[in-house]
Structures are given as structure tokens and as C-alpha cells.
Design brief:
This protein has four helices and six strands, in the order H-H-E-E-H-E-E-E-E-H. By secondary structure, it is α+β, with helices and mostly antiparallel strands. The chain has a single domain, classed as Nuclear Transport Factor 2, Chain: A, CATH 3.10.450.50. This is SnoaL-like domain-containing protein.
Length: about 130
């Protein structure tokens, strides 16, 4: 899973995230940045986060796995819980400046697919990238 995230985040979404995932990006209640929200499908998440953000980068976003913590269920039917810390690096089209952000994704897996995700990131850095 970690190698897939680093090689191709889109492939990770297809291979390891359920179609009907419930994905919350930090700041949804005050909408602290343009990507903040609650998304109820993989496609909705992708269209509202990956697509607009990647449009700001020259050459795309490169993710690197920093750390992974997992908890396996103590009872049958409970989800496998995984927290993954990521570093994202890209070059902004505007100004050609380096852009760097850290993410933490708390994921609950059932049948090898993430069914819920809570994503945390630095909203000020996202706002910088999304500014016109």
C-alpha cells in the first residue's frame, strides 16, 4: 500500500479506497480551506481535492510515506485501523516555488478497502497553493 501511494496516488485511490468511502478533510465545519469537506464517495473526494490541487502544480504532487501505525481488530468484523503520515512535495505553477505539506490520514479498512478516512493537513499551506 505504501509503495502504491508513493508511486501513484490515483492508483492508491482505485485499489485501496472503497467507491462509497466517507472521507472527511480537516476544517469542514468552518471551511478553513477550499479542500475542506465531507465527501461520500471516492470520486467526490477526488474531484473536490486531488483535481483542483493538482491543477496548481507543475508536474504533479509527489507523496512520501513518513510513518504508518496500524491496529488490527480485536473482534471479528471490526475494521483494521491505519494512520499514515505523508509528506507532499510539488512545484507551484505560479512562481515556480516549492510547495510542501504534511498529511495524516486515519483510515478504517474493511475487506482491504478504506471505508472511512479522516485527513488532516496544514490549511494555511493549502490556501497558499489555491490563491489566485
Amino acid at each position: 500500500m505504501c509503495k502504491v501511494i508513493e508511486r501513484d496516488p490515483g492508483e492508491f485511490l482505485q485499489s485501496y479506497v472503497a467507491d462509497d468511502v466517507h472521507w472527511t478533510v480537516s476544517g469542514p465545519f468552518k471551511k478553513t480551506h477550499p479542500l475542506a469537506g465531507v465527501y461520500n464517495s471516492r470520486e467526490e473526494f477526488k474531484q473536490n481535492t486531488f483535481v483542483p490541487l493538482s491543477g496548481r502544480f507543475d508536474g504533479g504532487l509527489k507523496l512520501r510515506v513518513v510513518d504508518v501505525i496500524s491496529q488490527f481488530p480485536s473482534r471479528p468484523g471490526d475494521p483494521v485501523k491505519v494512520c499514515i503520515e505523508l509528506e507532499g512535495v510539488a512545484t507551484l505553477k505560479k512562481g515556480q516555488n516549492e510547495w510542501r505539506n504534511y498529511y495524516s490520514w486515519v483510515m478504517h479498512f474493511k475487506e482491504e478497502k478504506a471505508v472511512t478516512v479522516r485527513a488532516y493537513l496544514d490549511s494555511a499551506i493549502v490556501n497558499e497553493a489555491m490563491a489566485d
